[in-house]
Amino acid sequence: MAAASSSCSRRYDVFPSFSGVDVRKTFLSNLLEAFDRRSINTFMDHGIERSRTIAPELISAIREARISIVIFSKNYASSTWCLDELVEIHNRLNDWGQLVISVFYDVDPSEVRKQTGEFGDVFKKTCEDKEEDQKQRWMQALVDITNIAGEDLRNGPSEAAMVVKIANDVSNKLISPSNSFGDFVGIEAHLEAMNSILCLESKEARMVGIWGPSGIGKSTIGKALYSQLFCQFHFHAFVPHVYSMKSEWEEIFLSKILGKDIKIGGKLGVVEQMLNQKKVLIVLDDVDDPEFLKTLVGETKWFGPGSRIIVITQDMQLLKAHDIDLLYEVKFPSLDLALKMLCRSAFGENSPPDDFKALAFEVAVLAGNLPLGLSVLGSSLKRRTKEEWMEMMPRFRNGLNGDIMKTLRVSYDRLHQKDQDMFLYIACLFNGFEVSYVNDLLEDNVGVTMLVEKSLIRITPDGDIEMHNLLEKLGIEIDRAKSKETVLGIRFCTAFRSKELLPIDEKSFQGMRNLQCLSVTGDYMDLPQSLVYLPPKLRLLDWDRCPLKCLPYSFKADYLIQLTMMGSKLEKLWEGTVPLGSLKRMNMHGSRYLREISDLSNARNLEELNLSECRSLVTLSSSIQNAIKLIYLDMRGCTKLESFPTHLNLESLEYLENCIWNKNLPGLDYLACLVRCMPCEFRPNDLVRLIVRGNQMLEKLWEGVQSLASLVEMDMSECGNLTEIPDLSKATNLVNLYLSNCKSLVTVPSTIGNLQKLVRLEMKECTGLEVLPTDVNLSSLKMLDLSGCSSLRTFPLISKSIKWLYLENTAIEEVPCCIENFSWLTVLMMYCCKRLKNISPNIFRLTILKLVDFTECRGVNVAMSDASVEDHSSYIPLYENIEYTRHRFWENLNHKHLACRAGGVSDKWEGVGHKLGQREIMRAKLGSPPRAAGRVTVELEAAGRLSDQLGGYPDGYLGGYGRTGARPKGRVPKTFRGTRTHRKYRKLTIKLSSFRENKSSEEIGSRTVTGKEEEGSDRPNIVKEGKGNLDLESKDSRIR
Hints:
By secondary structure, the protein is an alpha/beta fold. The protein folds into 6 domains: 12-174, Rossmann fold; 187-329, P-loop containing nucleotide triphosphate hydrolases (Rossmann fold, 3-Layer(aba) Sandwich), CATH 3.40.50.300; 335-398; 404-481, Arc Repressor Mutant, subunit A (Orthogonal Bundle), CATH 1.10.10; 485-496 and 510-653, Leucine-rich repeat, LRR (right-handed beta-alpha superhelix) (Alpha-Beta Horseshoe), CATH 3.80.10.10; 699-862, Leucine-rich repeat, LRR (right-handed beta-alpha superhelix). It has 26 helices and 37 strands. The strands form 7 sheets. The chain has a 17-stranded parallel sheet, with helices on one face. Keywords: Hydrolase, Leucine-rich repeat, NAD, Plant defense, Repeat. Residues 10-174 form the TIR domain. This is ADP-ribosyl cyclase/cyclic ADP-ribose hydrolase.
């Protein structure tokens, strides 16, 4: 690694103090060569005549070096010259804090420190006839210098390895930022990373790119690098963005590098001629023109060995086009670093005063962790009172600082016109949307890529577009300044702005001939029931709760790709036939006044049609048969539908959401049987997802075998009259199968054995189910839920790969001995299995089983005696893994994780932890409740942004251990609530309540846990406070 930060105020990087007779031609020679490869400037005493006293040149060299290396060897103390050097180094260490590295070459450090052994004999001989004060100075220097941690070559793997280690250590110590860049928080990490890429010890010429968005600190990093490296190069230049004529580029460039006025008379191609033998350092800042690079730094062979060319840009494609593969991406700082940056600018400190903490945090968030924004906003708040900060906050929240806008605007202005349009689309409408959706809607697959390459947006791992909030504000400000005729997209949102500021009337959109995207969110219910005009080039019309009864007669939808009118008051869309050749998606969900869908004859590209909850819809036009590309059709809740087209082409259909099961469809031959069976014409070859949940009339889906090679998910839950499962032998890609609450279902066919990709099978509350096939092994099955299958008598043996097995409230009589084959089982829930009599001791062989529940299995015999427990003591791994179990059957094990006394309640909460916003269910463990208390439940109350709601569960445990969206059972209050507060502040309150028979609930304990922000995460974690368990503040003596 290079000595990147050699300060030009110091003459030398390293001064070595050594005994020439011991190390000059061996160890020192190799070390100097390693220093030279790393461009470390080392002082050598060639030509200095040795005398009895240290030469002035040596004293000067020691004082002008940044690091002194003392190489102690057997004959080091034989030279008064060396000992005097040591004293001078000692003085520089004490008075000036010079860095000192000690190296012990074939000597014992303790002998050097104590002047004993062979080294001590040599030292004593040198001290003969010397004055006492001189001897004391030598001795003190030896003690203090050897006390500094050093390198003992006797302990290293080899001398060569030790040379490399010392050279690297010295190089790293020389890396420190220039004082002029000390206020740039985190500069050290940037410089260290860049020095690793530059690899100054290499003799080859290198080009390196620094890439990142505007305002991220690229130029600052480049300047810091240049200020620390230029002393190591004979020729160097920092070249800012050049606005001059192309003919002047080379003259300006060469004049900077060579340090004199260069005139080339308009000739091109002279850079290579003048610099090809010179070692140069060149930093080109803010490069946006490929020709600029080609003219000045066309190839690395133009420059001498060891040259380094650094190109700073925000255009990735520019670097790729110039074959610059060595790249350093400048990323946004963490929130902690961002807060420190802000505080440096605002307070001159690394952290805010206590009463400014909340305000400083909000400003850092508003700046989006962008160093430019943090610096500008921090400076504008410097030396202001808290009241002044509070007065300025609305301005920061709603607008963009002029200095920040000026800097960021440059990036926008350099874009091509089409890319500028894409930038504005994303800033005003599509920030956070899927990139595939935006490309499809705008029919532009290039614009997003260009913005990514220029660091104006990024694509998340999930494929979503992400634009920095300051760039988003810039785009909104630019769009607001445009004239009405040039506006491309508008978003009206009453959730954030008052209707007075954003009025809409009958003629609001007149004159907006180029408007392509219109999004209206909120309550504009005071509008008239019609519009005079809608722009003809609209691609997106998204109007939430639209108050219109019909779209304008004059509206031409030639370009319309998506029509979304959820919750509208529309009675019909338009009159007559409208050209809909571009339409791909139509969503009318919840438009309860819609009576008919207009002619769709031209909608040949329609892929998605959502008419769910259109409760007034009476008929669906036969013209829908022209939608040959239809993939998704949803007509759930269309309760008044009276007619349906009889000839649908379903070749492209992938998603079918209860779309044609409706008991109000008389008079059509094949639809009349839909209440019992799907039509024989049904050919769902490409169907990916089939949902028929809640159809109480359905008895079976189809006769025979269907080709279902694309089917991934099937949900027939709550079909109370479903008597048999269709033949799924060809549904070989099925992953999830839901059959819960199919109470008429008696058996499952053996053809289910073909579902080798099935992961999840839910058959909860199938009360008629008596048996499962035994001759199958579903090799991918992870979760099987048969809870509530009250007629099921035998233990399910359909898979050995199950991890989560739920058999609560079944009639199973035995846990068989083959349970030992369920080697992946981690959760076994069998509470309230009242017919359960025997539990095989082979359950002890399951070494990763973590949770077991046999609560209320009152028919269980004593499965093993105390002696038999001892017989199975070799299966101790089970004891170590089970985290929760409930039955006195386990008492004999006498283990801290297993013992749960039937009559007592534990007052401890163990392992309470949950990342808010994830779909994992929180786990808590609680002992059995006292019988007198009835039922113990858990309530959770949280403040924070949550994606799931959790409810309390009976008998003291939470969650379904693998089941997402699990619901509470019994009399359990569901009080887990989520509100959109700032993510930094979260708390979780846990309450323990007791329900007595026929009495109201009584709170018997509570505990509040505060969320803490994890480094590198955008979500807080509810964590356990301290060590051990979380004690409930109990109000009930029963749980003391």
